Model the fold of this input.
Amino acid sequence: MTTTTPTKVTTKWDSKKIAETTSHLVAGTWLAAFEVLSKLDKKAVEEFHKLTTQHKLSFYKNLNIKTPMELVRAIAEHDHNLFGSEIEISGDENKATLKYNTCGVWQASEKLGAKNFSPEQQKLMGDQCAQSWNTIAKEFGFNFEPKMTQDSYEMTFSK
Done:
């Protein structure tokens, strides 16, 4: 039997590799859950969506967010740093918009097969995303307006 000397593992990945790997793992888990739950009843999908929204809400509530701009900045920093999403934010303390030029998790999802989902499945995923952010906006006392195009996804939060 060969023994090795214990060696401390150090970080050698750059931020791009970390974001790509994180996106891939999150997308894979999310797609697997979506596929399995879609084969069950609608209640299972709704419960999964409700629970994941609550976890996301808990994360943002812990940041003590008070304004729409604070929320879009927090979302943008989170999604850019963890997933490599390319995002622009604009607005002020009363109304702020976040625009995804690219979404790291969606790009990873496409590589893992989401682009092969039916138009109905893709619409359901988009609707669930918008519903989740709408729920979060309401919890902060904000209005929410999504805008999806072929090339981008925008979310506007306002007081």
User: Anything to note?
Assistant: The longest helix spans residues 15-39. The chain has a mean pLDDT of 90. The longest strand covers residues 95-102.
